[in-house]
Amino acid sequence: MTEPGALRFTHHSRVGMGSEQLWVVAACFNEEAVIIRFIERVLALPQVSRLLLIDDGSSDATVAVIRAWQQSHPDQGLTLLELTRNFGKEAAMLAGLDFADGRCGAAVLIDSDLQHPPERIPAMVKAWQEGAEVVTAVRDDSDAEGLMKVATASWFYRVFNRLVDSIQLQEGAGDFRLLSAPVIEAVIQMREATRFSKGLMPWTGYRSVEIPYSRVARAGGATSWSSLKLWRYALDGIFSFSVKPLKVWGLIGLLISLFSFLYAALIVLRTVVFGVDLPGYASLIVAILFLGGIQLIGIGVLGEYIGRIYIDVKRRPHYFIRAVYEP
Questions:
Q1: Containing H/E element for 109?
Q2: Is 85 exposed, middle or buried (0-12, 13-18, 19+ CB in 10 A)?
Q3: pLDDT value at position 97?
Q4: Measured between alpha carbons, how far apart are the two ends of the chain, in Å?
Q5: Residue 16 pLDDT > 70, yes or no?
Q6: What φ, ψ does residue 6 adopt, rounded to 5°?
Q7: Quick one: DSSP state of residue 80?
Q8: Cα 256 to chain center, whole Å?
Q9: How confident is the model at residue 189 (pLDDT cuts 50, 70, 90)?
Q10: Exposed, middle or buried: residue 24 (CB in 10 Å: 0-12, 13-18, 19+)?
Q11: Does the pLDDT value for residue 218 go beyond 90?
Q12: Coil, helix or strand for 204?
């Protein structure tokens, strides 16, 4: 067990040690109801050398359950990183990749709620052994999530791909991926405060192979992703990879200015032809409210970018580790 406050890990040589090992990396948050089933299904796979769990500040007995299983199965290859608080899934995944970097030949990122079936890992390993640098699991049409969630996710992928030029996201692709050692090293070099791993991984440009999987309903517990959190995460993805929202509002401002100029010219023409004309109070109020709303929305979009700059320049660590539990 490592003492509290550990932040950095000593990386093993990238040649030799761990070059053929496959690690499975999973973040956990209040998963006491399902975590044992997840551990047993993952470690039952002969391809898996080690399972690395990152507890992201669970308020239930997740850590205690994992520790009890670990102590009763000391030779099963289970490691637990316990973070000091809930830093978020992105930070927890980064902590896992930081720990795995240099220790394995590839790592599979997977959710611990069993919506990502561990039984697809052998197919991912096969693709990796055949030369793939990234293996991305893509949801098929038999998705157990609600229609509204599936529809909004599809809408997000379409909007993202329209706004972002540098990468294109595969609809149905999430965090369930196998990353080879060079990809792990590349991903952990990107330390921006607002992380969107679904975009960071394809942005690296490494060769990717896609395999299908069926996402099932949660095996237990409740999701911590509310509609508001999903909305914020979608905004993080768009604002992290595109400045087009800023350009769009610049274009809107130009069009409104052009419309105002044409309207002013119309008023001048009416005054010259028909004499002095007093505009109506209602139309004036509507115009003021419309322009005020446009300005506030534009300021809000600008604030999203400035807020991210403010958070990023402070360069705070993404996470703190209370302890590392190894067999």
A1: strand 106-109
A2: exposed
A3: 97
A4: 8
A5: no
A6: -60, 130
A7: E
A8: 36
A9: very high
A10: buried
A11: no
A12: coil
C-alpha triplet 96, 202, 87: angle, nearest 5°: 35
φ and ψ at residue 138, rounded to 5 degrees: -115, 130
Place of tokens 């149905």: 172
CA neighbor of 46 nearest in space, from 26, 22, 66:
22
**∠ CA(304), CA(232), CA(133), 5° rounding?**
100
Q: Cα–Cα distances in Å, from 22 out to 17, 26, 111? A: 12, 13, 16
> What is the rounded CA–CA span in Å between residue 39 and residue 14?
27
Say if residues 188 and 318 touch (Cβ distance below 8 Å): no
327/314 Cα distance (integer angstroms): 36
Q: How many residues does the chain have?
A: 327
Q: Which amino acid is at 245?
A: P
Q: What is the pTM of this model?
A: 0.82
Question: Tokens at residue 84, please?
Answer: 């000091």
Interval 118-174: pLDDT, tens: 999 999 999 999 999 999 999 887 665 667 777 888 888 898 899 898 888 888 888
Sign of the alpha-carbon dihedral angle for 309, 310, 311, 312: positive
Rounded alpha-carbon distances, angstroms, from residue 181 to 7, 95, 126, 324: 20, 15, 16, 22
Dist. CA 130–CA 124, nearest whole Å: 10
Neighbours of 169 (CB within 10 A): 19
CB 90 within 8 A of CB 99: no
Residue 6: its pLDDT value, please?
A: 43
Spatial separation of the C-alpha atoms in residues 106 and 119, rounded to whole Å = 17
* Distance of alpha carbon 217 from the chain centroid: 20
* Tens of pLDDT, residues 247-280: 887 788 778 777 777 777 777 777 777 766 556 6
Pairing of strands 321-325, 78-83: antiparallel
